[in-house]
Amino acid sequence: MKKTLISVAVLGAMSSAAFAQSNVTIYGIVDAGIVSERGGKAGNVTKVSSGTANASRIGFRGTEDLGGGLSAIFTLETGYKVDDGQLDASNTLFNRQAFVGLRSATAGTITIGRQYTPWYNALAQVADPFAAGLAGSAKNLFPANGANLRNSNAVVYQTPVFNGFSGEVFYGFGEQSESSAGRQVSAAVSYSNGPLNARLAYNNRNNDVATGLVPTVERDIGHNSLLAVNYDFKVVKAFVAYGANKGLNSSTLPNAAAYTTAPITASMDTRNALVGVQVPVGMSGKVIASAIHTDDRESFNRDANQYAIGYMHDLSKRTSAYVSYAKIDNKNGASYTVGGNTEVGTGDSAFNVGLRHSF
């Protein structure tokens, strides 16, 4: 009798555990391609690259219904390299996203942890026809790296959608002896109605350093603003975007020494403009193209233009093949490079072809 009761208790515990885990989803992307880069001091570089269209990743996403329209949520996501199997950030497990929060159908969603900024979401989700990937990635000229992309120690609130409008607010704690040092604030307002998507985003980064042992090192604040719009005409989907970047670290260069021995100093006053299209081809393909201009407002006048074209073909709902090419015209010693979603690139032109599988 005791053995029977113990067996029932064990089975009940296992059943409860299985039920608790049933709302956890394992997901990811496996993306690998062949990349050929030209025009940098490294010469002609041909390599196998990971995360050209989308960064390769594996993640865990879960929800628990708390009743009354309230749910607990979490996401843990790590990036890895398909070409050699390593993590894409050493000594950091969940380097891409790591947060926990609450979601309400009527009050919105609040999350705490390592998360994307609203500014970067506007660039990747609304502004860029290449979705921040392939050789034509807008990340090559727009300042979409470092703290502008994602940040740790962040609290994010997202509103519900009201008549097509929604909002998002991001606050990243600097966690220094002075509360404002290292602080990051970002926000976005979105509108979506049928074929129209529009988003206005702003990012503010305090570059001060405060250790508590010495006086605070006061540095400039970096500001990034972005207006992004796309409209689906069915026969073509059009994209336009305009960004303004001012202050220290507002326009950091992904590869500042691509063409020179010493790194080029990044401008603290630039503007970005983008126009692009996605053109459906049959039921499974699309041609992608964009042109981007960076206007350096400082005395060096290190402007740049990027022209890109690509094609993506869906082999199934989860697997796509892609090919793309982009060329950057750097002016007055500018140091912009053609990269992809994950790698920053080594020169002013690149061709890539590859395969992406989602699960």
From TrEMBL:
Recorded GO MF terms: porin activity
Signal peptide: 1-20
Pfam family, one: Porin_4
Membrane topology: Multi-pass membrane protein
Alphabetical UniProt keywords: Cell outer membrane, Ion transport, Membrane, Porin, Signal, Transmembrane, Transmembrane beta strand, Transport
Listed GO CC annotations: cell outer membrane; pore complex
Name listed for the protein in its UniProt record: Porin
Domain Porin: 8-332
Record text on subunit structure and interactions: Homotrimer.
Gene Ontology terms describing biological process: monoatomic ion transmembrane transport
Subcellular location: Cell outer membrane
Organism: Pseudoduganella plicata
